[in-house]
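To start, one record:
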Amino acid sequence: MPLRQPTTRSRSIFDLSAKKNELNTRRLESEVQEFWNNPESAQKTMKRIAQLENQINEWDEIATEIEGLKSLLELDDGSLTEELETNVAKWESILAEKEITILLSGRYDQGNALLAIHAGAGGTDSQDWAAMLERMYLRWAEIRGYKTEILDRTAGEEAGLKSVTISVQGHLAYGYLKCEKGVHRLVRLSPFDAAHRRHTSFALVEVLPEIEESDEIIIRPEDIEIEVYKSSGAGGQNVQKNMTAVRIIHLSSGLVVTCQNERSQTQNRESALKVLRARLFEIQQQQRSDEVSELKGEFKKVEWGSQIRSYVLHPYQMVKDHRSEYETGNTQAVLDGQIDGFIEAYLKMKQD
């Protein structure tokens, strides 16, 4: 009964000795008398210390358990075989999950995410498809124990939605969801076609990291124009008498962000600024790396040929990711939020 050891990939990404050295350095920084003279910097350091302590403790625990199991395996005379097999399977599963999480080593991977879904080519069918994706990601977040909040939602004329922005809060939310960024394609018999013909629909999924207010992204009052209006529901009807919805226009970039989640105007304004800050950060990152030449907001065409994943419900059942080639025939499970297989396959592909 061999016990799998951490792979070379996991050991190279998660250098335990390097993490311990960094922890010691950070602790020494926190002991300096002038440490709290800069509260913002001090809080970031303390947050990093807590993060490193959690990571190191988790891997120390795994290593201790594995060494204990190895010792028991060597001494087992057959009386403990069933119990050992159960424990080995348990720790194999834990180790496999940890190897996935350590692939998420980006600056914002461990933080919250802002998820936006936009209906693309395909009319009412695509708007319905956008609503199906909204449900899929909300179910996925629920399964993982993440907290979600719909910041802005524009309903479709007949069904579904034109766009929705969701805050997803939880450990590694951005790291996981960033794998979902791109065009998603649906093939099915249309429930909106009287002849019940097969239709192809598209929706764009955007994923942004939640950026804390800092000197890195400065939004000055003179840089933006703020409008308030009544929140609206399906078909454009007003659902509130008070002017609680907020629209923020960033004058230099032309970015427009709205938030109308039926709370107070002040809360909607803060949420809209949070989304604007994330969008400005992504533009900044793209400009630094020269990955794109146009401003964020001018989306790539949401149509045939640009999809990252296809969901085929007719004439056969299949969901396939065109980047990692991962696929499954259990389409209902995927639409019910079971998308971890696609996320893990993409992360492994990127690392390889």
